[in-house]
Amino acid sequence: MDEAAARELYRRWLPGMWEAPTGELDRIARELFTDDAVGHWPGREVHGPVGIADQIRTTHAMFTRIGTSVRVGPVVGADGLIAAQWLFTADYVEGVPGATAAPGTGVRFLGADFLRARDGRFCEYWVVSDAATLMAQLGALGPGAA
Question: pTM for the whole thing?
Answer without folding.
Answer: 0.91
